[in-house]
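Tutorial handout. Part one gives the primary structure; part two gives the three-dimensional structure as tokens.
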Amino acid sequence: MFYYNNKHKSQFGDDMNNAQGILNIAKQNNGIITSAMVVDAGFPRGSLKYLADSGRLEKVARGVYTLPEVWEDEFVNLQSRYKKGIFSLETALFLCDLTDRTPVKYHMTFPGTYNLTGPKKDGISCTGSKEPYYSMGVAEMTTPGGNTVRAYSAERTLCDILKSRNHTDVQIVTDAFKRYVVRKDKNIPLLSEYAHMFRTAERLRAYLEVLL
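Part two.
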């Protein structure tokens, strides 16, 4: 017969406390938790494996776990896996509520020196961008699952889709501008400033002259 000594009791208590603390963080974060969040909170990373093995968490991607009842959020999964990636182009349009088209393929922009082999293997459409353009217009967006991710703002994205090299369908561009100009939070001066920086001012003017 096996008897717990005080050391075993203490270890068991620590494991239970760690597990409950991690589950509490997940509940406060729409049911999602990452390895980085666990470490930042001071809990051992191994507690995640314990919770996954016991069925109290589900591993949905490397370093990303959810409560079993939570709908899997691919936006969070991808950004947790590729922390330097910023959702852009048509994916950003969707997050900005400037299109109804759900992304078939996710698009992310990375620093110009970033190795794109990994994200491309995962089916992500990738763009590299140098500073200061990479960091320009980054905003926090809410996914359909209610989680927060980083994407380019409406103004930055509208300028991006005007670039001919991005090959954005003209109907998507037109619909996005129609949605944008009726928004209460539109910022035309900022949009014009970005357009000059990204050399899309003439194309922007053509859309605004018709819609405003």
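Part three, for discussion. Strands lie at 32-34, 58-61, 64-66, 86-87, 107-111, 125-129, 138-142, 148-152. The first strand starts at residue 32 and ends at 34.
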